[in-house]
Amino acid sequence: MAVNRVVITGRGAVSPFGLGVPLLLEKIWAGSSAVRHMEEWAEIRGLRSHIAAPVPDFDAKKFLPRSARRTMGAMAVYATLATREAIADADIQQEMLEGGRTGVAIGSTTGSAAAYEEFYLKYLPEKVLDGIKSGEFFKMMGHSCVANVCLALGVEGEQWAPVSACTSSSQAIGLGYILIQAGRQDIVLCGGADEAHASVTGVFDLLRAASFNNSDPEGGCRPFERDRDGVVCGGGSGILVLESLESAERRGRKYMVRLLGLAMLLTAGILPARIKR
């Protein structure tokens, strides 16, 4: 059976350097680091890693209406802006988003960590739900990014939200590849999003997998160095436009990369074996 060839025709990003792919590439090629010391984390008892790469503050009101923002945590905002940039980069028109042949696959480990914290700070002390807005659930749900992206941008194709910890966005890209190859979608907006939060870094801290290089934040993220000491968590979103080669050629779009295949490695049981009980 013949299968569709899959190419990449657009890209978008919100990163610890700021908004947009051009700024991200500029900083990467310059060898810049966005890791910084999180002074506000010093008050968290037991947290040893005080470094992260958060997205710089920006006013989301300038980019998204309140009707869209009220159900978005930070990570959903990042995903929506990155997806919008990728759509523009690939010159995808609104009627293509609404036609059912463009889907979305965006992975994340959980919903908004900040939204979880805010919810349980209100709920747990007295177990009271009064004062918690209904929109908080949509920030917390595991598929918050993909749901909000589709609602905000009017995408009516297939919607997927793979959750597989650090490989969530990679699986989202693989899923997009499969959907296009099988002919279920012509275009899939793929990638991932996350936000920097003390609880996220804290998980790696508990696993003894976080970097404790607090005295030199910019030197904290060094995965290929002999004296590396752990993970540095960050925030942002990266989105790729995957498209069938036939669709791209029909639109007269040049592609950046052709995807030839994918593979997934089952790692269940590896982490528990390394955790000291």
TrEMBL record:
Keywords: Transferase. One of its GO terms (molecular function) is 3-oxoacyl-[acyl-carrier-protein] synthase activity. PROSITE patterns: KS3_1. It comes from Desulfomarina profundi. This is Beta-ketoacyl synthase-like N-terminal domain-containing protein. InterPro entries: Beta-ketoacyl_synthase, Ketoacyl_synth_AS, Ketoacyl_synth_N. Residues 4-248 form the Beta-ketoacyl synthase-like N-terminal domain. GO terms for biological process: fatty acid biosynthetic process. The keyword Transferase applies. It comes from the Bacteria. GO terms for cellular component: cytosol. Pfam families: ketoacyl-synt (PF00109).
